[in-house]
Amino acid sequence: MDFIANYGLFLAKIVTVVVAIAAIATIVVNVAQRKKHQRGELRLTNLSEQYQEMREEMQAARLDEHQQKLWHKGQKKKHKLEAKQAKARAKRGETVSSDKPTLYVLDFKGSMDAHEVTSLREEITAVLAVIKPEDEVLLRLESPGGVVHGYGLAASQLQRLRENNVRLTVAVDKVAASGGYMMACVADRIVAAPFSIIGSIGVVAQVPNFHRLLKRNDIDVELHTAGQYKRTLTLFGENTEQGREKFREDLNETHLLFKRFVHEMRPALDIDAVATGEHWYGLQAKDKGLVDDVSTSDDLLIGLMKNHEVIGVRFAQHKKIMDRFTGSAANSLDRLLLRWWQRGEKPLL
């Protein structure tokens, strides 16, 4: 019995040591992977292959049951042969590239603070690392605009493509207004859906003031600044006409910079006629020169697939659990702000 007890104790120690070593190894691997991918992960999707597979499936669906069986059998044989050939090429160290130029497809669905620019800059950097002279970029854009510095940076990221002589097309299915249009105008070509919202080249700001409410309740607020215009308008103090005038002056200066930027990107545009803060639908926007063609991004992509290998590029950021929670709350607030904008700034159908 003592032998069995000692042997069992020995096995327990061995198991404990093995489990401890495995746990340490797992932690080390996880930490290494986390460090490797802490910025995020670049994901590529062959959109040409996806479309071709969908097309073949639709064609097969129109066949009778016997023909479908033969078709699926032929597809399996075809894929098996392709896999065998790819394996043989890999063993020989050969690489296969398409004869067609590549169209890189990016997506930007902008929020009020334009935080999506973090992913956009990674995607553009990745594309510029492998771009060839005949390749192009298509950006599917959706944004009602937001903060000036956020969308200014997003537009600057797109300018990197322009400065490297990469042809850029922007497709707008829903909305590219204000900061969204600031991004779109960088493109060599803008394509908009017939009823997409385009334009809104203007600047807006509003500040609530609670001074009278506080005064009625005998609450004083002291605001101390160094610099005459460090604070032009305030939430709780008494605003002055001088402060209001300076605030309007800053807005007009920002609007002037916005107009100048759009005019530099699209010199043929009558900037004074369209920089009124108004927005137009895609069909109207084409007449005014704000966009070049009227079409959906789907038709545009299908047309380009005939002569291009189409690759979707997406940078997915890794988020901690707390970041996911706060990000979800921020997105909900952002959607609420977008609804308010939609109700106040454009007609509902």
From TrEMBL:
It comes from the Bacteria. The keyword Ribonucleoprotein does not apply. GO terms for biological process: proteolysis. Residues 162-309 form the Peptidase S49 domain. InterPro entries: ClpP/crotonase-like_dom_sf, Peptidase_S49, Peptidase_S49_N_proteobac, S49_SppA_C. The keyword Cell cycle does not apply. It is found in: Cell membrane. Keywords: Cell membrane, Coiled coil, Hydrolase, Membrane, Protease, Serine protease, Transmembrane, Transmembrane helix. Residues 37-64 form a coiled coil. Its EC number is 3.4.21.-. GO terms for cellular component: plasma membrane. Belongs to the peptidase S49 family. This is Protease SohB. It comes from Dryocola boscaweniae. The gene is sohB.
